[in-house]
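Pilot study result, target chain (140 residues):
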Amino acid sequence: MTKHASLALLVIALGLAACGTAAKVATSQQAVWQKFGSRSVDNLFLSWGPPMAEQRRADGARIMSYTYSNMYGVGQKDQRSYSCTVTLIAPPPDYKISDVSMQGQDYECAVIAGGLTGQSGFGVAHPSDFLREHPPVAPF
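Predicted structure:
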């Protein structure tokens, strides 16, 4: 295989991997919309508590952000952090959620969509790393 063909395959593989992650994040974003979309911010606060950050736009709309983060490999040379942030917008006068956006890693976005916000404990390996390093074995 030529050097250019190998590079092309690498680019394609990375592109497909990014699409898979984006699709999983979009699924988590849709789950948050299903739970809170077009509903009062009071429902959000009762479920998730106060946001980690809140701002007001010039038109009075509330912009609220929640983040979930996790660190893996703590104390090791490959220590890393993964996170997901969901931002919700609620315009006046009724302050119902009109928009949900989400950015981050697929696992952390799924966790936050499930209602866990803040920072978790320190993990040894990210779930995707663990599965890559320890693939399931077919039964005999």
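One observation from the pilot: The chain has a mean pLDDT of 80. A full batch analysis is planned for the follow-on phase.
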